[in-house]
């Protein structure tokens, strides 16, 4: 039996279902109040050379109250060609990332400590936005929440405050 069981140790939340990204989109909003770390995994099928801008946003609740960009930089990794390699390459810390124009399948990973949010103003919720690009570009995003205060039984919902 493995020492780490993903299904009972982490919360997996679909932020953006796979869809075309011509006009840009905003993901579902999740609360980080029960997590110590959030990893956002964005998967892209870039069918057009128009780059895709990804931005981290914060809110005071899951309905989006006070939504604004995150101000504190977070670690980012990217794989701009998943057919050629399965390695993520460390990027400069930031609050956003824009893919290259290469027509490839890509992955982008953001690693967010909830303390990077504007906690003094009551921000404990997170979401991601994509910028307008092209109808041939398909994006999807998952959040992996770890370090929950509740390690046994069902982990608390991240989509309800």
Can you give a write-up of this model?
The radius of gyration is 16 Å and the shape is globular. It starts with 5 loop residues before the first helix and ends in a 15-residue tail after the last strand. The strands form two sheets. The chain has a six-stranded antiparallel sheet with strand order 1-12-4-10-7-8. Strands 2, 3, 5, 6, 9 and 11 form a six-stranded antiparallel sheet that branches. The chain is built from one helix and twelve strands. It has a single domain, classed as Jelly Rolls, CATH 2.60.120. The chain has 161 residues and is mostly beta strands.
The N- to C-terminal Cα distance equals: 34 Å
- Judging by the overall fold, what is the CATH architecture? Sandwich
**CATH topology, which one?**
Jelly Rolls
Helix tally equals 1
Major sheet: 6 strands, antiparallel
Radius of gyration: 16 Å
Helix content: under 10%
Number of strands: 12
Question: What count of structural domains?
Answer: 1
Which H/E pattern describes the elements? Answer: HEEEEEEEEEEEE
Gross morphology: globular
Low-pLDDT segments: none
Any idea of the CATH class? Mainly Beta
Relative strand content: 35-45%
The helix-and-strand class reads mainly beta
**Strand order, largest beta sheet:** 1-12-4-10-7-8
Return the average pLDDT rounded to an integer: 90
Give the oligomer, counting copies of the same chain as homo and different chains as hetero. Answer: single chain
């Amino acid at each position: 039996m493995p020492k780490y069981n993903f299904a009972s140790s982490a919360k997996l939340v679909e932020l953006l279902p796979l869809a075309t990204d011509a006009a840009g989109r905003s993901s579902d909003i999740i609360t980080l109040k029960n997590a110590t770390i959030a990893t956002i995994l964005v998967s892209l099928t870039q069918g057009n050379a128009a780059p895709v801008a990804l931005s981290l946003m914060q809110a005071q609740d899951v309905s989006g109250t006070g939504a604004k960009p995150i101000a504190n930089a977070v670690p980012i990794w990217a794989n701009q060609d998943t057919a050629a390699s399965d390695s993520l390459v460390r990027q400069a810390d930031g609050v956003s990332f824009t893919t290259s124009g290469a027509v490839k399948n890509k992955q982008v990973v953001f690693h967010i400590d909830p303390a990077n949010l504007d906690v003094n103003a009551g921000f404990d919720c997170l979401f991601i936005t994509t910028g307008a690009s092209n109808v041939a570009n398909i994006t999807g995003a998952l959040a992996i929440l770890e370090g929950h205060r509740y390690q046994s039984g069902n982990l608390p919902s991240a989509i309800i405050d």
